[in-house]
Amino acid sequence: MKPLFLLSLLLLSLSLFSAEIIGKVVGVSDGDTITVLDNLDKGRFRIRLDKIDVPEKKQAFGAKAKQYLSTLIYGKQVKIRFKKIDNYGRILGIVYLDGKEINLQMVQDGLAWHYRHYDNTESYITAEQIARANKKGVWIEKDPINPYIFRKNQKKNRK
After folding, report:
1. How many domains does the chain have?
2. CATH number of 45's domain
3. Cys staple from 62: which of 25, 55, 88, 106, with CB 3.0 to 4.6 Å?
4. Phi and psi of 74, rounded to 5°?
């Protein structure tokens, strides 16, 4: 119950300020979703890396993105800055490890798209352009499918 209370308090202040969680990464669900054990009250929080979208598990590079993110942060102390909660109850946040922005690093290393539909941060736009030009990660493929389009097509095919 403590994590829910803490999250409620944090949400009250989110309209004007960003909030912060500091804790240990105890799970990596995929290349853009992690679980963090909060240092304050040992609550577990699901974090969706904001500003990015990674290949789905069934896509090329989906498993590689998950493995790469795990290598970067699993078992380590991170800081998450956030302002929003998504429709699935996950915190949308920027993950920092030793001051380095992990979300941006995923884009720089070609394992994530910048989620332009929701964000226009110049550093992410530039990082994706450079990764594409250098054929890093997913950009080595001739015509990689944006995860957003992939999910949309999957829903369409289920109907």
Report:
1. 1
2. 2.40.50.90
3. 55
4. -60, 130
